[in-house]
Design a protein that fits this description.
By secondary structure, this protein is of the alpha/beta class. It contains 24 helices and 30 strands. The longest helix has 25 residues.
């Protein structure tokens, strides 16, 4: 490469579309910043990543080839740049997966200008900066698209943009922005250059479900375009994304000149149809986590390091701060740069490449709000708002930015992580934090307790163990044996829920008790619950139950529990299920265990709240909805066959006769179930049947049906005996499941 002091003519500069918005005075000043360079045939134009990229080149004569370099293969010409085109090292960022080069096709002349001089120039002539940056972005997107054409669709045409330039529209989408909606006209097809899109379809209940994840290099909108129909799904960005939009006319041009592209699209269609017809769940687990401090000045580096360590069991981890981004890309200040030019997509491109390499990525926001923090929010799947529990619970000005970002990216899951500096003190005050924020979930981390960080790691990565305990009166003591078997096999529990007695047992786990502690809890407070009364509203008065619940749980709030918990009750007035996720624990438990006719219902705002077993005695489905990807372990104490130990008796048998047969030692007792057992079974039989339907859908990863049909639902005195039965019936199954690889 030979350099000289020759400058380009004004006539040449006037031909360059990138400089259209500059007047004569500006062009005259600009031409003096250039100097001439000559390249020999096949000589490579310097392409260096990062801050060492020094010059922009204006081609004066000849042609430069933009090449794809594949090991052990001849170089492939993707684009040919000619006179008046602008090229530079930024083209090397068009793909982090592929190596590229720019070489002279014969002897070529160009004019070079340093980026420093050019940036200084546009600070003085700001009116021309936006147009210049847009033109460079178009060149950059053409380089991206040419690589995808070649590697994904076998289109090898260096002159493709000569006839397609007017058929392509470059669209930049922010995280959360909609590309098109279900039912819109199918008038275009889109190729994702960078970022990620998500496709959702409407469900019969008025909600929506994820139907596809569309990554960089993939196509969206092809079904409606090819079938001349409306859009079958809504598609929106889950990353800052850039897509190339091809009109129907433009797509037809490609198909005519490059029919092999249609074969690749047909393969893609086949894969998607196979996924949909096979009812396979779309893998939509979070991969990139944003750590955002709730308050200005709260630095999260130590917490980020602990989280990284807790995630290592579940795959490779990359932890990144703004400083790490600058070092990795070789451009100082890039992470906090807010300029909208070709450099603005470098971070997105690079992070996409890291997501191919690592299983999980943690992006750590700066202590004070910077442009890097905005990028962190836009490039994450799951936002973790991290706060010191002893700080002011009112949202700060700092956190308002998170809230504003959340209004756009509604698809992003947002969790509140409360760090408790003193692990010895009871957790309190969570309600204040939740009342002032819209978050999907929350988690307590007691400082210094590694078990809490490990739980968070499992919850984030879809490896959490969620325990679901069913209702069934005193038979619920068998759950204690299941918990003991889980403990012996070192299976930690990260979420719990239950109905009726299952709610009580699972709440003990949520508080922090082990199986022995729960056993003692039951012996102390559940052994004598029945205070019978005149049966107008119920057989039991309920005062004793409320006394024991208060003695056991006091003013404990559900939101302050260490392990996430919920329980189920039934709104008898409205025939609706209630999911208790907050409020006083004893109140939720009182609702969940109020079996109609036996225990008085709870009257709340005029509605009658009763036992959750009427509608959902084993809430596996609700746990799946709440917890998403996790290992659900379900313990069922409602046998499909019950009340079987009967002797034949007349349908019009007298109650007095039954009573006499049972008290007369000289007469054979007639075996029939008691009225309370018949009542309980009648009330819960529909929920038992619903539970069978849920289990048939394989919602639980480990389903344990305990043989408790011979245990009385009303005998609350046999804690150890019933717990032992549960242990014996579950230990082998739990051990086999624990030893199963990749469970």
């Amino acid at each position: 490469m030979e350099a000289s002091n020759l400058n380009p003519s004004l006539a040449l500069l006037r031909q360059i579309p990138s400089f259209d918005n500059l007047d004569e005075t500006a062009l005259t000043e600009l031409r003096l910043l250039f100097n001439s360079v000559v390249f020999d045939d096949n000589e490579a134009l310097p392409i260096r990543r990062g801050q060492h990229e020094s010059h922009l080149y204006l081609i004066a004569s000849g042609t430069f080839d933009f090449n794809l370099l594949i090991p052990d293969m001849p170089k492939e010409i993707l684009i040919q740049f000619g006179q008046t085109d602008l090229v530079s090292g930024f083209l090397s960022h068009a793909s982090h997966r592929n190596q590229t080069s720019l070489t002279a096709a014969g002897k070529c002349t160009a004019f070079q200008v340093s980026w420093d001089d050019l940036n200084d120039f546009f600070e003085r002539y700001i009116v021309g900066a936006n147009h210049f940056n847009t033109a460079l972005e178009t060149t950059f997107h053409q380089a991206q698209l040419s690589i995808l054409f070649s590697t994904r669709f076998q289109i090898h045409d260096p002159k493709i943009f000569n006839y397609l330039s007017n058929e392509i529209e470059w669209q930049r989408l922010q995280n959360g922005e909609t590309l098109f909606r279900q039912g819109d006209p199918g008038d275009a097809i889109y190729l994702v250059l960078s970022g990620r899109l998500k496709s959702t379809v409407k469900t019969a209940d008025g909600g929506s479900k994820v139907s596809n994840i569309i990554n960089a290099g993939e196509v969206s909108g092809e079904v409606a375009l090819l079938t001349h129909s409306t859009r079958v799904a809504t598609v929106f960005a889950t990353r800052d994304s850039v897509v190339a939009r091809f009109s129907r006319h433009g797509f037809n041009k490609i198909a005519e000149k490059h029919p092999q592209a249609m074969f690749q699209i047909a393969k893609l269609l086949g894969q998607r149809l196979k996924l949909q017809t096979g009812n396979q769940a779309v893998h939509d687990l979070a991969k990139t986590y944003a750590l955002i401090p709730a308050h200005k000045g709260h630095c999260l580096n130590d917490f980020a390091t602990q989280l990284r360590d807790s995630l290592q069991e579940w795959g490779s981890i990359l932890l990144l701060t703004s400083e790490d981004i600058d070092k990795s890309l070789g451009i100082e200040g890039l992470a906090v740069d807010n300029s909208e030019n070709s450099r603005s997509s470098l971070i997105t491109q690079w992070l996409e490449h890291q997501e191919l390499i690592y299983d999980h990525i943690i992006l750590v926001a700066d202590c004070s709000w910077t442009n890097w923090n905005d990028k962190v929010l836009r490039h994450s799947d799951h936002i973790l708002i991290v706060a010191n529990s002893e700080a002011d619970c009112e949202p700060s000005e700092h956190e308002e930015k998170i809230i504003n970002a959340g209004r756009v990216a509604k698809h992003q899951k947002k969790s509140l992580v409360l760090i408790h500096p003193d692990a010895s003190r009871p957790i309190t005050g969570t309600r204040c934090w939740l009342d002032n924020r819209r978050v999907d979930d929350w988690c307590h981390i007691r400082q210094g307790l590694n078990s809490d960080m490990q739980r968070l790691g499992r919850l984030l990565t879809g490896n959490a163990n969620a325990l679901v305990l069913g209702g069934g009166g005193a038979r619920g003591y068998a759950h204690i044996g299941v918990i003991r078997a889980l403990e012996e096999n070192n299976i930690p529990i990260d979420k719990v829920c239950g109905t009726s007695i299952g709610a009580i047992i699972s709440s003990g786990l949520a508080i922090g008790y082990d199986s022995d502690g729960i056993s003692n809890l039951c012996k102390s407070h559940l052994h004598k619950l029945f205070d019978y009364t005149f049966p107008v509203l119920s057989l039991i008065r309920g005062r004793r139950i409320e006394y024991e619940l208060n003695a056991a749980f006091g003013e404990q709030l559900i939101e302050d529990l260490v392990i996430p918990f919920f329980c189920i009750s039934t709104n008898l007035t409205r025939a609706e299920q209630i999911v208790h996720t907050s409020g006083r624990l004893k109140d939720a438990l009182r609702c969940s265990m109020s079996l109609p006719a036996m225990i008085p219902p709870v009257c709340k705002d005029g509605d009658l709240i009763v036992d959750g077993g009427l509608l959902n005695n084993l809430p596996i489905d609700e746990m799946r909805r709440v917890a998403g990807d996790c290992n659900i372990i379900a313990s069922d104490i409602s046998p499909k066959l019950d009340l079987t130990n009967n002797e034949p008796f007349e349908s019009d048998i007298s109650g007095l006769r039954l009573f006499i047969s049972r008290i007369n030692p000289f007469q054979k007792s007639i075996k029939t179930p008691g009225i309370l057992h018949i009542l309980e079974r009648s009330i819960t039989v529909s929920a038992v049947n619903y539970g069978v339907q849920v289990q048939e859908q394989n919602m639980a990863n480990l389903y344990i049906e305990l043989p408790v049909e011979n245990v009385s639902t009303l005998d609350y005195s046999k804690v150890d005996q019933t717990a032992g039965l549960g242990y014996s019936a579950s230990i082998k199954k739990i051990k086999n499941w624990a030893d199963k690889p990749g469970k």
